[in-house]
Structure formats: C-alpha cells, structure tokens
Amino acid sequence: MATAVKICGITRSEDALAAARAGSHAVGLMFYRRSARCVTAEQAVRIVRALPPFVTPVGVFVNPSAAEVGKITARVPLALLQFHGEEPRDFCGQFGLPYVKALRVKAGVDLLQYARAYQDARGLLLDAFVEGSRGGTGVAFDWGLVPPRLPLPVILSGGLNAANVAAAIRRVRPWAVDVSSGVEAAKGVKDAAKIAAFIAEVRNADV
Of 8, 15, 92, 178, which is the active-site residue? Predict the structure, then answer.
C-alpha cells in the first residue's frame, strides 16, 4: 500500500491547494488556541471549501470541551477528528465522526496498551514528546520505540521532513505520515516546494 500523507497546520487556502496538488491525502486544521497554527471556524470553512474531491479535512483538537468540538463540527464540514491531548475514548467517540488519537511517544510508554484503550479509533498518531508542547515542534522521536504490530494503523509524526521521511517509512512502515513544521516557510505558512519534495520522498520510500 502507498503511504498516505497528511499536511497539518494549514492556515491558508493556497497552502491546502498546494498540498492537494502535490498528492496529499489529508490536511489538518488546528483548533487549539495556543498553537501558532490555530484557525477560526470561518478560516477553516474557507479552506475546506477550496479543497478538491478526495482530500480529507481533519480537525485537530487538544483537550477541548465537548461544546467546543460540537460548535466547530456544526460549522466546518470535517471528515475526521484528531485528538492530541488526554481525551478519553468515550469523549473522542461521541461526535458522530471517525477519529484518530495522538500519543506523544517517549521511553516507557506502552503503545500496545494505549492502542487497545482506543480500539474504536481509525488510527494512532505517534508524535514526539516535548515538554509543554502539543506537536509541530520539528522534533523526532526514537522510531525504534514503535512495536512492529500495533492493532491500529500507525500515523507517524514528529520532526519529519524531506530529508528523513523515507528512512522513517522504511523503519516503521506506517499507514500514513503527518508533517507540519517540516514543510513550512514560517509557522502556519507552508512552502509548496517543500511539500512537493516531502511527498516525492514518501513515494520514493514506497517503491
């Protein structure tokens, strides 16, 4: 199977279109107010409306209230939710949309147990643990910590860029890879050439 690609932290329609043209399967819209890549519902609607068919808009949340998620999903036509905090399984599954659950990986974390705890998730997104941060750090984690047979599809994130994504795919064999800072000109502003180079390296790794 070809490795799927998600370009996360999209804040502009033109960046979403650049991702789609380069072959991205999904774009991530951040609804975490502390993030430099946070978008409003109005911005998100414009971005989603600009997307061509078969590119999945993903809403990314960090420890939100149910009311916050409900307000966003009522206004923005999202296809998938991503929870990047300590949200319990029952919380993640209550919104009538499929979801993926993120985990910040560090030594000592039992990924098998975590995957079993979120068995109704569509996938497990593995990111680097950085104290005080919730993704988009540009920091990679030790890919050797990922067990070879997790019971959920793995979405690999954390410090990926065009220089290392092929090696990451060959080591972990994830279902998908997720990148934000690794394809940026500045925080929240994507670089079309970096996106294209990143996706080209993903395709090289699939050969």
Answer: 8
- How far apart are the C-alpha atoms of 92 and 124, rounded to whole Å? 13
Strands 189-190 and 184-186: antiparallel
pLDDT in tens, 133-161: 655 567 788 999 999 889 999 999 999 99
Domains along the sequence of the chain with CATH? 4-206 (3.20.20.70)
Annotated active-site residue 127? The verdict is yes
Convert the pLDDT of each residue in 93-118 to its tens digit: 999 999 999 999 988 889 999 999 99
Helix (H, G, I), strand (E, B) or coil at 94: coil
The Cα–Cα gap between 40 and 102 comes to: 22
Q: Report yes or no: 1 and 22 within 8 Å, Cβ to Cβ.
A: no
Is 8 an active-site residue?
A: yes
Choice among 15, 92, 127, 178 that is catalytic: 127
The terminus-to-terminus CA distance of the chain in angstroms comes to 10
